[in-house]
Amino acid sequence: MEFDVVIAGGGFAGAYCARALGGAFGGAEGERRVALVSERNVLVFQPMLAEVAGSSLAPVDVVNPLRQFCRGVNVLQGTIQKIDWASRSLTLDGGRFTRDHRVGFRHLVLALGSVTDLGAVPGMAEYGWPMKNVADALRLRAALINRLEEANLVEDDATRARLLTFVVVGGGYTGVETAGQMLDFIRQAHRFYANLRDSVPRVVLVHSRDELLGEIGPELGAYARGVLTKRGVEVLLKARVSAVTARKVLLADGTSIEANTVVSTIGSAPNPVVMDLCRQLGIDGGKGRVPTDPTLRVAGIETLWAAGDGASVPWIDRGEAKTSPPTAQFALRQGTLLGRNIAAVLKGGEPQPFRYRYMGQLATIGERAAVAEVFGLHFKGFLAWWMWRTIYLAKLPGTMRKLRVMIDWTFDLVFPRDISQLLPPPEDVVRAIHLEKGENLFVQGTPCRSFFFVRTGSLTLSSPGLPDRAVATGSVIDQMELDSSNLWESTGTAAEPTDLVVFRGRLLEYLRRDLRLSKRA
After folding, report:
1. Which pLDDT tens digit goes with each residue over 47-57?
2. Which pLDDT belongs to residue 235?
3. Residue 183: its pLDDT value, please?
4. Which domains does the chain have, with CATH numbers?
5. What is the rounded distance in angstroms from the CA atom of residue 39 to the CA atom of residue 135?
6. N or C: the chain end with fewer CB closer than 10 Å?
7. Tell me: the pLDDT tens digits for 273-308?
8. What is the pLDDT of residue 519?
């Protein structure tokens, strides 16, 4: 597939860029010329994720189907494995049965943002709950209900206290809002458990800085801390998590918190696909943010553009030169301008520079309280909470979503929050597959997505210019068969009917990490 424009990333920047281009071209022409590549087929309204975890909003309330939101463009769902600038193409993994698709482009928009990386803190990847998407919010909600159910069963006071202790790491917007929503949900649900009425749940917020919500200013940060503390959240400032186990959170000062539930709102890392492209082009990607000129074009490269969290965009704030902060209000406006700029360039026009008057920031802290900084004015308490709901409701894409959220918020004022247990399907980290003679297990030069154990049968590994190698029953096919780019160095073909065990997902990452550590040792 070949397109004039490929937009990599379906977040705010990518979706609004696609929406603008769809409006500029429209219909069949837009679908033929513009493609939006996204890992999910929905635009997630992330400012409301904490309310999904706290069961005050349904998951469908905070998502919008990209094919409806970005009419007039071709939406391709899949994960970008690699961008090859020399051939002006990217490799797309659409799923288990649709891998290694080539998508060509003339103009490329980078709107991939960052990726979640919890590996900096030992144990956090294994035991921490991230808060990046709807699936994370649903899993956290399920975990909160599970802890209440388990605590309701046990009679040991220490075990029950540990089950009813919930730790949130990170005192930015997501951490503060998640802690507030968790406390609201746990306290409302707590009264329905007969054996827990004499127990007091704990929510602990751990933050490494001097004050919460550093982006909004010390005054409102202190107010948010005061409200959370008054409501019962234990706020630990200037505290760093050094390790996490299944039963405790260890802090850098040597103390620990007994808890079975840890939520991590920190741990972002540069997108490896973007960083690899920066290496190809000799661009300094800094901390994962690609530098652009004011028109959102990457300097010196006419057909490469960037916007959103993964872009370093110049911005004039009341006469002062700055870099646009990585927030949703900037991402959606950058995306809209970028779509218009690319449409103008394709039609022979000139792109326009990014200009925006900063509106401010808002954060909820639970129990109908919030903090807000709007056009330099500070608001707090109920008024700020009303402003938060009004402003974000107005920003929420789609009339249907707005109506659903209004209904859910109205019910939330009158009725208790739902405590039904709705578990998402578990990740299939180990599964079995069968190959008949002559079927390929993997092909040379394609990305590695799994390791394999040969239960029965055998395979042949073939590489051009080298003799074939046999892989017998009981053998493991792992990192030793990969090159430095994590690509298979050979083609694996079943020499006879063969059964294998496949290691994928989190288990694959653990195996890769252990292999890297053993090589270093």
Report:
1. 899 999 999 89
2. 97
3. 94
4. 2-39+78-114+269-358 (3.50.50.60), 124-266+361-414 (3.50.50.100), 430-520 (2.60.120.10)
5. 13
6. C
7. 999 999 999 998 877 899 999 999 998 899 999 999
8. 46
Low-confidence ranges of the chain (pLDDT < 50): 515-521
pLDDT at 423: 63
Say which amino acid occupies 325.
P
> Hey, CA dihedral for 22, 25, 28, 33, is it positive or negative?
negative
Q: Say if CB 78 and CB 104 are below 8 A apart.
A: no
Long-range CB contacts (< 8 A, 24+ apart) of 358-363? 358/317, 359/329, 361/173, 361/215, 361/216, 361/327, 362/387, 362/388, 362/391, 362/392, 363/173, 363/176, 363/177, 363/213, 363/216, 363/224, 363/388
Contacts of 253 by beta carbon, 8 Å cutoff, 6+ apart: 239
- For residue 5, give every residue at least 6 positions away whose Cβ sits within 8 Å of its Cβ, in sequence order, or none: 21, 33, 34, 35, 105, 106, 107, 108, 109, 342, 346
Report the alpha-carbon distance of residue 130 to residue 136 in Å, rounded.
6
φ/ψ of residue 316, rounded to 5: -100, 110
| Chain position carrying tokens 């030069």 | 445
Give the Cα-Cα-Cα angle 502, 457, 495 (nearest 5 degrees): 100
Phi first, then psi, for residue 292 (nearest 5°) are -130, 170
Count H helices and E strands in the chain, helices first. 14, 34
Tens-digit pLDDT profile for residues 456-488: 999 999 999 999 999 999 998 988 898 887 889
- β 34-38/74-77 pair status: parallel
Which residues in 207-237 are b (16+ Cβ under 10 Å) and which e? beeebbbeebeeebbebbbebbeebebebbe
Query: Is the dihedral angle over the CA atoms 240, 244, 249, 254 positive or is it negative?
Result: negative
